[in-house]
Amino acid sequence: MLELKILMLEDVPGDAEIVEYEIRKANIKFTSRRVDTKEDFVKGLEDFTPDLILSDYKLPSFDGISALKIAKEKCPDVPFIFVTGAMGEDLAVERLKEGAADYVLKDRLTRLVPAIERAMKEVENKAGVKKTENALRASAQKWHNTFDAINDSVCLLDMNRKILQCNKAMANLFGMSFSNIIGRTCTCCELVHGTSEPIKDCPMMRMKNSHKRETLDLSIGERHFVVTTDPLIDEAGNLTGGVHIFTDITERKQSEELLQKTLDEIYSLYNNAPCGYHSLDRDGVFVHINDTELSWMGYSRDEIIGKKNFQDFLTSDSQKIFRESYLKFKEEGWIKDLKFEIVHRDGSIMNTLLSANAIKDHDGNFVMSNSTLYNTTEIVKAEKEIQNRINELEEFYKMAVNREVKMKQLKKEVEKLNLELSRYNK
After folding, report:
1. Which CATH number does the domain housing residue 283 bear?
2. What is the pLDDT of residues 117-156, one digit of tens each?
3. Of 89, 45, 46, 85, whose CA–CA distance to 68 is shortest?
4. Parallel/antiparallel/unpaired status of strands 334-343 and 163-166
5. Whole-model pTM?
6. What is the end-to-end Cα distance of the chain in Å, rounded?
7. Are 116 and 13 found together in one domain?
8. Structural domain range at position 216
9. Domain check: are 162 and 221 in the same one?
10. What is the number of structural domains in the chain?
11. Closest CA to 22 of 6, 46, 37
């Protein structure tokens, strides 16, 4: 036991000395202050801060009952023992009920030290309990702070889906106070869905059967959530309830929808482009192809992807060009304005112009081609028509030139004949 500070309310100095002597005999270290008035008693409580109070029952200007009341107000954890000349048993019981730790009669001071030791032991026990309570309270508060710091809405459910606990995010989600959520007779079904029975695919009901995590995509108003339910298992391995977690995925959902819309637009542009797009693996087999090029060939995507080689749709002359150019293309990584004749399913031939870039991995190995194909059939047709017209004009020009030469020769013949005729006229 550490050195005690004992405040004595005693008007007889000799009696105080006898009490101190009795305590010293037990080898208890202490310092003491004796007071005999209310003012000094109150002052002693404030500046002496005693560990123990020993009080007479009756004093000339003060009394122990009043002192007990003051002590319980100012320092309720400090044990208060009456040390008095006379106190009936009934009176002593009343004082104990009012908060006194014990009472000792002055003619039986052998009971004083055991009373002090019991009182101080009780103080020690109370301090330990209080320390434990404070630690538990701090731990609980820390848990609640952590629980409330979670952005997801979380609640604990019993086996009947009654809400036992929830965090701040859950209360904010439904715009309700904790008192209106926790311990209510209504279930999570009524709170979340407004129904008395579980909804279809309720993760809590599925978890009760599977004893493992179950999830559900759920919309509440304009917000979207992933609801997760994890099992609560006690030490005996019994399922006692579930942890309901509402993760707000509204922004993610909106981003996914926007991304999907963008992908759809890109896919539409790819498929409906005025030119053909395709990708070939290292062997020339189709990996991707757009709708435009499929329409040019007259085949479906399922008939081509992973099954057909590009040269399967080429004329024999173009097949030879493809075999020679594809090897070079895989090495150099690009090709530009290569002419191919593509054979349609119906046997018609389409003229095309192809340019491509190679896609390679981090090690520089060829993965596939990205090719752009232009339909040049009309251009080739127009070129042929123009060339034919040029040929016709050149032929006409030659005819016209020959005619002009003949006209000049005829003119010379006429002039010659006129000259001879003029000679006869003379």
Report:
1. 3.30.450.20
2. 999 999 989 888 888 888 888 888 888 888 888 889 898 9
3. 45
4. unpaired
5. 0.52
6. 176
7. yes
8. 150-253
9. yes
10. 3
11. 6
